[in-house]
């Protein structure tokens, strides 16, 4: 067994390749089968072929500084996404409260039946007969 085949065996999600005989299984070469470089065999995504690597230059971060900058940018974007999601939730809560206040100003008997997950009162209106 080569070093390239071992990580695939210990991971939960394996890339299963079917062969016809046991001799083929023993002599199986993932580099040749996947048509990629030995360094890229363990990648689970974006595994470029040798042909693709020859034809185009892939812009990959080389230095640790570039990797750190990319990580910092990703963290900033996740933080922005989290704040946007929080803002959306707050606006939804405010909209619900305004809608409830508008309904309370209207006609009809109402009864407070409890509180929602944000602590706002929940009302139930008695069905009135239409005349």
Provide a brief overview of the structure.
By secondary structure, this protein is mainly α.
Tell me what the structure shows.
This protein is mostly helical and 131 residues long. It has helices spanning 6-10, 22-26, 30-34, 50-55, 64-105, and strands at 110-115, 121-125. The protein has two domains: 6-55, no CATH class; 64-125. The chain has a two-stranded antiparallel ribbon with strand order 1-2. The radius of gyration is 30 Å and the shape is elongated. It starts with 5 loop residues before the first helix and ends in a 6-residue tail after the last strand. Mean pLDDT is 83; it is low at 1-5.
Q: Kindly, what is the distance between the CA atoms of the first and last residues, rounded to a whole number of angstroms?
A: 85 Å
Please give the radius of gyration in angstroms. Answer: 30 Å
Question: What is the molecular shape?
Answer: elongated
**Number of beta-strand segments:** 2
Number of domains: 2
Number of helices: 5
The secondary structure category is: mainly alpha
Percent strand equals 5-15%
Order of helices and strands: HHHHHEE
Strand order of the largest sheet: 1-2
* Oligomeric organization of the protein chains: single chain
Helical fraction: 40-55%
Pfam families: Utp11
Subcellular location: Nucleus, Nucleolus
Function: Involved in nucleolar processing of pre-18S ribosomal RNA.
Protein name: UTP11-like, U3 small nucleolar ribonucleoprotein
């Amino acid at each position: 067994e080569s070093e390239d085949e071992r990580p695939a065996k210990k991971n939960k999600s394996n890339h299963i390749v079917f062969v016809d005989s046991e001799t083929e299984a023993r002599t199986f070469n993932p580099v040749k089968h996947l048509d990629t470089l030995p360094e890229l065999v363990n990648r689970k995504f974006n595994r470029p072929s040798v042909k693709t690597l020859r034809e185009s230059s892939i812009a990959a971060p080389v230095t640790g500084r570039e990797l750190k900058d990319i990580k910092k940018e990703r963290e900033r974007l996740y933080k922005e996404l989290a704040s946007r999601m929080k803002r959306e939730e707050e606006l939804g809560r405010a909209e619900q409260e305004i809608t409830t206040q508008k309904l309370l100003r209207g006609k009809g008997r109402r009864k407070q039946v409890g509180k929602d997950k944000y602590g706002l009162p929940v009302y139930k209106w008695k069905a009135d007969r239409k005349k």
